[in-house]
Amino acid sequence: MSSESPAILIIEDDADVAKAARLLLERQGMSVAVAADPAAAWVQLAERPADVILLDLNFARGRTSGEEGFAMLDRLIAADRHAVVIVVTGHSGIAVAVQAMRQGATDFVIKPWSNERLLATVQRGVALRRAKLDAATAPPVADGLLLGESAAMARIRDLIARVAPTEASVLLRGATGTGKTLSARLLHQGSARADGPFVTLHAETADEATIAAQTAAAFAGTLVIDHVDRLPRGLQTDLGQRIEGIRMIATSRLDRAGLRAAVGEDLLYRIGTIEIEMPPLAAREGDALLLARHYRSVFEHRHGKPACAISDAGATAIAQAGWPDNVRELRLVMERAVLLGADTALGLDDLAPPVDYADGRALQPARSLAQSEQAMIETALKRHAFNVSRAAAELGLTRAALYRRMARYGL
Q1: Pairing state of beta strands 274-277 and 170-173?
Q2: Are strands 309-310 and 222-226 parallel, antiparallel or unpaired?
Q3: Would you list the DSSP string of 48-116?
Q4: One fold for both 7-135 and 151-279?
């Protein structure tokens, strides 16, 4: 068992309740983080997995159904099959707590609790978590957060939850940065093979010896064929002969027509029992801004920066941008904005594309981001009859910054 201080996450909107639990557990040598709601909890979990999660079931005043808590419980268990979640409820919510345990919670405590009961419950949870991890041969998924509230992402999470426990092969298609690798890990984690190895075969560098070694290594776990369309035709037959009895997940950036042209029919049928198409960020309505705020909070926490809002103009640009490199690009932009941005609110200047330090050239801004910025500037100028001072104030820019943008766009 690890000698590291147990990590506890308390998800509780009542600050007094959270403080009481935190002080009690810290006196026992535990490392305690507090989140007031699920969004804040994901920020904490992105930084450090928790040994035990104390989860309140209601976060909106007056609600007692536990709906928010049940949704969070499902997401926590989907993100980490070894998660130990202890639900926290009032006396009137015992039936709700029992229902939560049927859905995967480990235990529950009743508010107001006795300190002895809470401490004993958490200590049992820590022991259970570490026993689970000691028994596992595969480490927990790092940063296993498939976030997003759009209908497209809800469908992806539902597909992963339904397919993961089966032995079916899965083909993950989608552009760079859409979450194919994370989805592959979650499929493995949700399977009966989760404690076995998670082996990645990089098609571009594969040879016969590599295929032989990695298919053998993955026999009790999962084999991921990364960029399956890049596997030379001469090696596809060799791979096809070795994958009997192996759980396979393949990834590709190509569409169906491109895959049919690049992958032999026999192998294509064997890797694609279930096909999951990862949606681009631009097709996930509302998710870009949700993810931007999530990554802003993650990087503020990671880099010790003060909390900073996103300006209205910045939020509009984020929501309307095309994000050609999807979540990967958004994550990079938000980390740079947190590190170098203003202390008050992150605006258009702070969300400018980063610099490619490898060759010193600035990366090209996403066309749709530039177009969105130009459209917002034109709208603001027209609204204020081309009064630059008023338009700049609305956009959260200085007059000089607005003049530079007007020159850039020929306004």
Answers
A1: parallel
A2: unpaired
A3: ---SEEEEES--STT--S-HHHHHHHHHHHHH-TT--EEEEEEGGGHHHHHHHHHTT--EEEEESPPHH
A4: yes
Q: Which two tokens stand for residue 148?
A: 């997003």
Pairing of strands 7-11, 52-56: parallel
Which value, to the nearest 10 degrees, does the dihedral of the CA atoms of residues 366, 277, 41, 321 take? 20
Cα 175 from Cα 179, distance rounded (Å): 9
- pLDDT tens profile 261-306: 999 988 998 998 999 999 999 999 999 999 999 999 889 888 888 8
Q: Which residues, listed in sequence order, are joined to residue 172 by a DSSP beta bridge?
A: 251, 276
**Tokens 């020159």, residue?**
407
- The fold of 283-409 is Helicase, Ruva Protein; domain 3 (1.10.8)
CATH architecture of 7-135: 3-Layer(aba) Sandwich (3.40)
One-letter-per-residue 3-state SS of 258-285: HHHHHCCHHHHHHHCCEEEECCCHHHCC
Cα 137 to the chain's mean position, in Å? 23
How many C-beta neighbours within 10 Å does residue 187 have?
A: 28
Q: What long-range pairs does 303-306 form, CB within 8 A, spacing at least 24?
A: 303/338, 303/339, 305/338, 305/339, 306/343
Look-up: residue for tokens 């995967």? 104
- Rounded Cα–Cα distance for residues 346 and 292 (Å): 11
For the stretch 64-111, pLDDT in tens is 677 888 889 988 988 888 899 999 987 666 788 788 888 889 998 988
Strands 170-173 and 361-362 turn out to be unpaired
Work out the angle between the directed axes of helices 388-395 and 399-409 (0-180°, nearest 10). Answer: 100
Q: Regarding beta strands 222-226 and 7-11, do their DSSP bridges make them parallel or antiparallel, or are they unpaired? A: unpaired
Q: Report the predicted TM-score, pTM, of the whole model to 2 decimal places.
A: 0.71
3.40.50.300, 3.40.50.2000, 3.30.1380.10, 3.40.50.200: which CATH number matches 151-279?
3.40.50.300
Q: And the tokens for 242? A: 């070795």
**Per residue in 345-388, pLDDT tens?**
888 778 865 444 333 333 334 445 566 667 778 777 887 778 88
